[in-house]
Amino acid sequence: MARKPKGLFIYAIFYLAFLYVPVLFLPLFSFNNSEFIAFPLSGFTTRWYSEMLADGAMHQALWNSLKVGTFVSLLSTILGLLAARALTRYRVPGGGLALGLISLPLFIPDIVLGISLLILLNRFGLPLSLYGVALGHMLICMPFAITVLMSRLEGFDKSLEEASLDLGETPWMTFWRVTFPLVLPGIVASLLLCFIVSFDEFLIAYFLAGTDATLPIYIWGQLRFPSQLPKVLALGAVILVVTAALVFLAEWLRSLGNRAAHRPAGV
Q1: Most buried in the list 20, 112, 251, 258, measured by CB within 10 Å?
Q2: Domain ranges of the chain
Q3: CATH superfamily of 55-261
Q4: pTM of the model
């Protein structure tokens, strides 16, 4: 009987603790009845959440982030689906090179992308706004969308499409009635991941937003005032919970789609 790798298990425990224990202090202090972050806690309160919900500037920043995130996730997923379809269904000349170039923004520091896009917008006389932020976010969301959708398109049985075409269905209706339902879990996962990436991104938005603050920019601005810190902690706790739930949902849908794609027919 093989011995259990206790050292690896202990390493995994310490690694996870290093990652997540500091994060857990954020919701903990968001319920602290004091403006100071220190132990022992002064008491339990929810007034920081009440102040957060009553902040009009926060509402506007949240709305801006939701608009940008929704637009970026939809457009990135649509373009990513077209690109993934072409790269998996057809033999595209230079497809590997194109995929590498599309993925390149993932390896370029966000501050470099932000400065580059800022220079580009200024060169063409375009104003700084949420449109520029959406453009920058698409650069970093497209690789995620293409990767997720390519893994989904490569997983299902392509003979189903061929059977539909042999039975006289048009290519568009074959895609809509055969391919789209099979790819739907990957599409949903792509939408969620792209939305999260756009919603949480700060540096590109900081350079390109102009006077339109997104939620990360709003949080950054509030950190300059110590009295606003507990409210920021409450907001961060809410974002942490929602983001974690969306990530788990996206991964669950992606794994569900992969299992369905590899399931034998009739099972």
Answers
A1: 258
A2: 55-261
A3: MetI-like (1.10.3720.10)
A4: 0.77
